[in-house]
Amino acid sequence: MHPILIVGAALVGLPVLLHLIMKQEPKRLPFPAFRFLQQKLKTNQRKLRLRHFLLLALRMLLIALFAVTLYQPTVLSTGFVNLSGDQPVAAVLVVDTSPSMGYADGEGKTRLEEAARRAGELLSSLPDNSRVAVVESGDATGNWLQSTADARTRLRELAERGKKAAATGAPAGPSRPVTGGVGTAYQLLGTVDAESEGSGPYQKLVAVFTDRAAASWDAARADDLKKTRDAFPEPKPAHAVVDVGVETPTNVALLAAGMTEGKAQVVPAGPPVSLTVTVGVVGPDDLTVPVNAVLGDAKPVRKEVAVPRGQTRTVAFEFRDLKPGLHQVKFELPTKDALAADNVRYVTFRAAEPRRVLTIATDPEDAAFWNLAVNEGKEFANETLTPQQLGGKELAAFEAVTLFGVANPAEPADDPLWPKLLRYVEGGGKLLIIPGGPERMGDRAGYDPTKVEAANKLLPGAFKRFIDTAEEFEEPKDAKSKNRRRGVTWDIFAGADDRAFSHPLLAPLRQWRQTGNVDIFRAPRRTSGYWEVEPLPEGVVVVRYDDADDPKARRPAVLERGRGGSKGKVIQLTSPMDTGTLFNDYWDYQNSWTVVFPALLLRSAAGSRDDERFNFDTGASVRLPVGKLVAGRPGNLVLDGPGVAVSEAAVKLTEKQVDVTIAPPRTNLPGNFSLTGPNPDWREGFSLNVPADESTLDKVPVEGIEDVTGAGSVVQVGRDVDLKKVFEGTDTLRAPVELFPWLLILLLLLLAAEGLVANRFYRRK
């Protein structure tokens, strides 16, 4: 077919296509009334869904609020929105009562008085129903007071003590840092909520009132205090440290008093005794300071010393013609200053006759060298008796008893020595046992602990056999070997280190060894005959002989045994020391050992007088020996001294008691104290002094205190304490409020609202 015809046929259908495309559909118009109903339906459906949602949400909120109400929650409200009013505070007021708080300002008011005043101001700002405790710096425990009125009474008492301290010079309290009081405060606050009987946790406050002097803060306790503080649950205690000191203090103080050059507090009777006082000056000027010294009831002796400002100087006083016995001296500044507590110092010392010791020897001639050596040093006065001469003599009158070469202490059968010695040691006595030679000791029956009960209770070791070094040891094989046939030395002289000298008997030897060039080390004494001793279970070996190359095989030279339950002591030697057959070279007088050794033994037994102390800081526990008194005329003792009330003066003794301890509060005040009893010849005493640190009025750095109490807790001198600022930044400012009643009211309102809404939504029309 021709293409033209084909195209033409196709074009013929073009009008049909255009007709179909351009064809118009007929319009469908809804009935107007029906269209209005459809629009109304959509509006009503949206309103209904909104009402259902609101009612559903209201009912869900009602159930949730019901659950929260049953939980009875609390919230913390601030001071601006406090639904329950001011929350009570548990406040512990720690007042520094150390001696430095007796410092008086220009108006004559002491720091303790100022501390009581500032504490009273803080007390006035506390909310009603608060709990209050007043704790002194020296208190180890504390109690909550019944009311704030009781707290005010307590503060008034402290203020009166401050006034009395300024008037009399006696400190208001012992020298104790306030860190102890802070620890006590933490103890009280740790239990206050448990004692509140359901009234809710208290706001907790530790308020410290101190002069911030050097001795007022113990930095060593900081870590322990922080651990205790951090152990508190939230809210933790707030702190306020109120500085009641003065900015630029001036003071003249007696800082120390004692024996010149640190000598022992027991001196020989007869020679002059020198005491030294240290004087310090704090202030703008150099001063010439007068110092009075009063010995017992004698007239005051005055000396003057020039002291540059900020420095110290010493002044010495000499006392002559002192009789044997206890002597007490009072040093004082005749001119009063701002701090009266450090204007006086007390010293006690003893001018002593030689100490009595007893030697019991079968033959006094055997103990002639021993007696001469003991008396040579003038420290001891020895009396030598035979067992028969001893009779009923009271052993307790002697500082030490030496059993010297007695053949058989178990004889005679009707009056043996052992029971007397046992009673003496059990009463605190010191016994020294020096054996005799093999001829004197014989079969050693009187020393056999398996047969003699008293020997078993006293001896440190049992004598076994006698060793003669010439027979016991062989000739040395070469020149380097030790020749022990000529005798043996103590092993400490054969190259021992310092640890071998740890026993008190050997401690002086260590000092001489360190100085060098001492004859007893250059030429140590040798023993050619000694007893082999087997230590009993209670015995301790003090030193051994160098009689074997193996240290474990060496035999004891000196042994010791304490008597359980008493201060008694027994020292046992193993080599005879009599003047007959010489088993050692102790008595050749070619060496100082001749005098040194007996003194070492007796000092170790009876105690060195260098260790006796009569002077202590206030607040210390003082122990005094009473063994001689008990042995004489036992009975209760009487303590006399500053601050000792009549009810506290009696010191009761028990049977076999060898010492007494005087403890706080009887040692809280400085002064000279004496202890007397029924025996008129017996008297003990001691002196108490305020620690020298109490005169150091430089302030403790703020940083050191706030490391425990928190930043900004130190209130500087002259500034007031704002309770809200103290609690600022802590949850303790926000008072806990019980929400149960408020939630219950809201629950009832919400329940009523739900009913109204439901009735409105579902009511029939």
UniProtKB/TrEMBL annotation:
Signal peptide residues on this chain, from the entry's feature table: none
Region Disordered, annotated ranges: 159-179
Domain of life: Bacteria
InterPro entries linked: Aerotolerance_reg_N, Class_I_gatase-like, Double_TM_dom, vWFA_dom_sf
Keyword terms: Membrane, Transmembrane, Transmembrane helix
Transmembrane regions: 6-22, 50-71, 739-762
Record domain Aerotolerance regulator N-terminal: where: 2-73
Record NCBIfam families: two_anch
Protein name: Aerotolerance regulator N-terminal domain-containing protein
